[in-house]
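SUBJECT: A protein chain and its fold
Encoding: whole-number codes for local backbone shapes
Chain under study, with its fold:
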Amino acid sequence: MTMSRALVTLAEKGVEAESAARENLKAAYERFLREEEPSRKNEAGRDLIRAIFGKGALAKDSIV
């Protein structure tokens, strides 16, 4: 594989990862807004925080 093709492939994977992250954020946000039951709203809020800041964003989460 040539260097330019490798860079194109890397860029494509980055665009795909960004798109997937946006979809995950959108789904987490919508779920948070829909939830009404307090414990489920709390978990939806945690999922939203993870979508924004990453999986290690909450102290309770494992980094693995």
Notes: Residues 15 and 21 are 10 Å apart (CA to CA). The radius of gyration is 16 Å. Helices lie at 3-34, 38-53. The mean pLDDT is 90.
